[in-house]
Amino acid sequence: MRIDLHTHSAVSDGTDAPAELVRKAREAGLDVVALTDHDTFDGLDEAVAAAGRSGIEVIRGVELSTRFGGQSVHLLGYGPDERHPGLAAEMELIRGGREMRLAPVLDRLAALGVPLSEEQVRVQVGGSPSIGRPHIADALVEAGYVADRKEAFDRFLADGGPAHVPRYAVELSRGIERIHEAGGVAIIAHPWGRGRDRNLTEAVLTRLVSEHRLDGFEVDHQDHDLETRARLRRLADRLGVLGTGSSDYHGTGKVDHELGCNVTSYEVFTQLTARLRPVAREA
Ligand code: AMP
Ligand code: ZN
Ligand code: FE
Ligand code: FE
User: Tens of pLDDT along 235-266?
Assistant: First the structure.
């Protein structure tokens, strides 16, 4: 069984339509793929419908924008009730924060000598309800200012970069609670990627498990080197939580994140699905 639990479609900042992503996941030899777009469930119905035709299993998920100690932390939620009011309201707030950030980012880019109109960004956003920095990066590429998304982040958009503007994100512990209230499983994405280990220490992860019943965290992810993966694996085992693996596929939007480049073991996957709490769902 090959199981990839974290991917993005063009419904957030990936480049494949959900059905296209599912087709490629099947071609890549995956048996299970989770679609986890940033702060939206909008691609899930299309992905599940495509799966029904191709024989691959699609897990419904989301990657929630949260914050801990002033740092951005991504929280994966698997199988929550998508109509749960608390979770839905929180996701709407986050998407609103994404919208409000656009104007100040464009102001900064103009001051930096790389002006973009809102329209130029909207073209890249397409129909996505979850506008992200990668869309702004794509507009910079399209305008000829940079060669690719990576250069756009390195020069302008990365955390702490000259055109980076923070936006609203839910407090991490509250995000975990919201996913749990909605009956989902909460897994921290790439916890020690891009310097997050500064705040998200072993002690903090331990406390999130004991006090907030965090279900686990990603171990095998491209943002983690081999030593980091080994340390996270030991920690997950010691805490008795789920250590997952994933590609964090973004289509052509991210290099070195091919579908199935990291996978979750069948054993961890069965434990994860066993943790999904049945919640009362309206017909
Ligand atoms: P946003 O959600 O709009 O704040 O943008 C965050 C997304 O941008 C992440 O999910 C990554 O896909 C991407 N990203 C963040 N930092 C970088 C970076 N330094 N280089 C390339 N992509 C990045
Ligand atoms: Zn992304
Ligand atoms: Fe992420
Ligand atoms: Fe992601």
Answer: 999 999 999 999 999 999 999 999 999 999 99
Residue nearest to ligand 1 atom 15, measured at CA: 158
| Cβ within 8 Å of residue 145, ≥6 positions away | 114, 152
Q: Residue 141 is inside which H or E element, if any?
A: helix 133-142
Kindly give the number of the ligand 1 atom that is closest to the alpha carbon of 135: 3
Q: Residue 161: exposed, middle, or buried by beta-carbon count in 10 A (0-12, 13-18, 19+)?
A: middle
Pick from 172, 33, 153: nearest CA to 94? 172
DSSP letters for 165-232: -----EEHHHHHHHHHHTT-EEEESSTTSTTGGGTS-HHHHHHHHHHH---EEEEE-TTS-HHHHHHH
Nearest atom of ligand 1 to the alpha carbon of 134: 8
150-172 residue pLDDT tens: 999 999 999 999 999 999 999 99
Contact 84, 67 (CB under 8 A): no
How many Å apart are CA 163 and CA 183, to the nearest integer? 37
Angle at Cα 263 formed by Cα 262 and Cα 265, nearest 5°? 145
Decide: 251 and 241 in contact? Cβ < 8 Å: no
122 Cα to the center of ligand 1, angstroms: 18
Ligand 1 atom with least separation from CA of 65 = 2
Would residue 62 be called left, alpha or beta, if left means φ above 0 and alpha means ψ between -120 and 50 degrees? beta
pLDDT digits (tens, 9 = 90+) for 75-125: 999 999 999 999 999 999 999 999 999 999 999 999 999 999 999 999 999
Q: For the chain, how many residues are written? A: 283
